[in-house]
């Protein structure tokens, strides 16, 4: 017998209920994992509320976890029982004590990376890699704006961009979060509740604006994000924690100075086993080298997944939230 969080109806955090589920066995090309830690992400909220639709109802949410291989199916020669592993992607189903998933979505963990850290960083860290090195190749002297700079992805973006040589500006909601962002590589935290973000950005950049804005907030920030860009700047909209971003007229991009807009999805950048492994290798190398510190905001028992979602949606968290299976 297995246990997993099940969602029977779209709604609030109280829809996340622990239930007994059938035992799992790996089929051809699959791996059976005893999960120890599970990552909690805003995409899980989108599935819980119905913004993103699962293939069927009821369903188990979650897209990343870490643990130990219990068994492998026929044809799997890249993983072995007892091996420590982690994964990101695939269909939802990570909020469970045990999981069967396609082996080509799983990577082996280096000895230096604990399961707790892996669950806290796989999706967020690979997202940072995608944003900073694939969507826009940030380099020395670049000016970047990172919204929610003290959040799970934000803290990783600040550190990674800092090590790439960029000038990092980040929006935060409190003085405490400003200090956290600064400690993780953000040169200029901006308290968005107390000052105009676009005015502050232009003051910090001698009126030039930034080459790229990374916006995971959406409804509350997209208009200001456009106003912060330099000519030919890029707005990367990759989340909507405050709600769906407003519609943009194509002419706004021209009026702002021949601007670019993109809405990337991580899973389009790690769609093949080779792409997944390359992203994992880049992330693991940064962590092992000490370039990235993985900050865990809080850890919750699997049965308290609803409380973990409340913490995430409160905007009071800083860093990653994980579940303990």
TrEMBL record:
Task: Please indicate if the UniProt record lists Oxidoreductase as a keyword.
Answer: yes
**GO CC aspect terms:** cytosol
Question: GO: which molecular function terms?
Answer: mRNA 3'-UTR AU-rich region binding; NADPH binding; quinone reductase (NADPH) activity
Reaction(s) this enzyme catalyzes, per UniProt: 2 a quinone + NADPH + H(+) = 2 a 1,4-benzosemiquinone + NADP(+)
Keyword tags: NADP, Oxidoreductase
Query: Which domain of life does the UniProt lineage start with?
Result: Bacteria
List, alphabetically, the InterPro entries matched: ADH-like_C, ADH-like_N, ER, GroES-like_sf, NAD(P)-bd_dom_sf, QOR-like
Q: Is Repressor there in the keyword field?
A: no
The catalytic activity of this protein is classed by the Enzyme Commission as: 1.6.5.5
Every copy of the Enoyl reductase (ER) domain together lies at: 11-323
What family classification does the UniProt entry report for this protein? Belongs to the zinc-containing alcohol dehydrogenase family. Quinone oxidoreductase subfamily.
What is the protein name given in its UniProt record? NADPH:quinone reductase
* Source species: Spiribacter aquaticus
């Amino acid at each position: 017998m297995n246990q997993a969080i099940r969602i029977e109806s779209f709604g609030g955090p109280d829809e996340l209920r622990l239930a007994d589920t059938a035992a799992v066995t790996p089929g051809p090309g699959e791996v059976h994992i005893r999960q120890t830690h599970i990552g909690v992400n805003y995409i899980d909220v989108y599935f819980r509320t119905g913004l993103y639709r699962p293939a069927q109802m009821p369903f188990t949410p979650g897209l990343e976890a870490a643990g130990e291989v219990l068994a492998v199916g026929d044809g799997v020669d890249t993983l072995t029982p007892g091996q420590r592993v982690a994964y990101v992607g695939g269909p939802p189903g990570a909020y469970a004590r045990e999981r069967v998933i396609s082996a080509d979505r799983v990577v082996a963990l280096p000895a230096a990376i604990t399961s707790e850290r892996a669950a806290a960083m796989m999706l967020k860290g690979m997202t940072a890699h995608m944003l900073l090195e694939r969507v826009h190749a940030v380099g020395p002297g670049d000016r970047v704006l990172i919204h929610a700079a003290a959040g799970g992805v934000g803290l990783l973006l600040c550190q990674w961009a800092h090590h790439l040589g960029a000038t990092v500006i980040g929006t935060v909601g409190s003085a405490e979060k400003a200090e956290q962002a600064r400690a993780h590589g953000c040169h200029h935290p901006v308290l968005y509740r107390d000052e105009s973000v676009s005015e502050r950005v232009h003051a910090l950049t001698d009126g030039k604006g930034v080459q790229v804005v990374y916006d995971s907030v959406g409804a509350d920030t997209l208009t200001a994000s456009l106003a912060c860009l330099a000519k030919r700047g890029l707005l990367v909209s990759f989340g909507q924690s405050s709600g769906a971003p407003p519609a943009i007229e194509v002419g706004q991009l021209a009026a702002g100075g021949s601007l670019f807009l993109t809405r990337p999805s991580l899973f389009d950048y790690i769609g093949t086993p080779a792409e997944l492994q390359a992203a994992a290798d880049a992330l693991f190398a940064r962590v092992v080298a000490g370039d990235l510190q993985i900050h865990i905001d809080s850890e919750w028992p699997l049965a308290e997944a609803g409380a973990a979602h409340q913490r995430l949606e409160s905007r009071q968290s800083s860093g990653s939230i994980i579940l303990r299976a």
